[in-house]
Amino acid sequence: MNDQRKTIYIHIGLEKTGATSIQNYLFNHATYLQNLGVFYPIRFGPNQTALVHYSGKEKHTKSLYGNLDFKRSIPNKINEIIKKFSSSKCDKLLFSNEHLSSRLKDEDDIKNLHNLFSGYDLPIKIIVYIKNQVDMLESLYYESVKAGNKSDLNTWSEKFRYFELDYIKFLSPWENSFNKNNIIVKLFNNKFLRNGDAVEDFLNILGLQEYHYGSSNKNVSLGYKGIEFLRLLNSRNISNSLLVNNLLIPIDKSNKITMSQKMREYILDKCEKSNKELLNKYFNDKVSYEEFTSFSRPYNEQKYLTQDDILDFTSIFIEQIQHKNQQIKELQQKVKKLS
């Protein structure tokens, strides 16, 4: 099956580096991209979580969809995809899932992923976006509060253990399985993204920069007041559902929060040696340490809500819920008239 023109690309994240925007674009334009030589299989949905489910240990992947029978079926499904790719005029087969970088916890997991594709005698390229550890933690904190975290940003950042923030250590098992020369490391920072856009930058890697117009959709997130309000709900064991989050977004106009200056310095000091090695290894020092560690968010340390803030937020929040309930009642009445 060896065709020197054809290459498999696997985009592994990291999380909070535009993966959702990239995947939605690829999924929604799959047919168009196929005409341009990029085969993005859509049978698993916008992203290929199946690769994570197959490669990772159950304790790290059980929150994702899939059971044992599904896991056993994945090699056959991949084989069908590669057969279609091989018979097509496309020269690039692309997979994408950001959980590959966070749920594949050790070298055995990554080898499982490699072995899933190694029998096809096609070169494999790994694409990964990274950003400095302060920017990463400040972005991930919002997701942690949505998931029930009760800690403030500084405390949570200091104890962070979700995945490896030492990028040299993180990339090492990927290098061992796929070879360093097959790993494409990109910086997720507006200064280094093509036209400051994640999708456009990703298409540029594939040689398709001229085919994306407009900017990608950005995930809308809460400011410090909304995040703190959710954290207070968490601390009182009040369910913090997606509905609550979506109700808060339209009413929270506060700025994004950052960790303290002291904590920012602490995090970067811990990672300085590794970061400098990374820049030398993957960017030949074309990116300076100062550029890499420049923060995307202006300093705005986490503030605790005053009693007045809480009362105002609660009042507006209740009004939003009442408005939504009224909309639901009106919709139910319309449906009854149709029946």
Task: Characterise this structure.
The chain has 339 residues and is an alpha/beta fold. The chain has helices at 19-28, 30-35, 49-55, 58-61, 68-87, 99-103, 107-118, 133-146, 153-158, 167-178, 198-205, 224-235, 242-248, 261-283, 289-292, 307-338; strands at residues 7-11, 38-39, 92-96, 124-130, 183-187. It has 16 helices and 5 strands. 54% of the residues lie in helices and 7% in strands. It has a 5-stranded parallel β-sheet.
Amount of helix: 40-55%
Fraction in beta strands: 5-15%
**Regions with little confidence, pLDDT below 50 for 5+ residues:** none
Mean pLDDT: 88
Number of helices: 16
Order of helices and strands: EHHEHHHEHHEHHHEHHHHHH
Largest sheet: 5 strands, parallel
Structural class, by secondary structure, is alpha/beta
Number of strands: 5
Query: What coarse outline follows from CA principal-axis ratios?
Result: globular
Q: How many angstroms separate the termini?
A: 57 Å
C-alpha Rg (nearest Å): 22 Å
**Major sheet: arrangement of strands:** 2-3-1-4-5
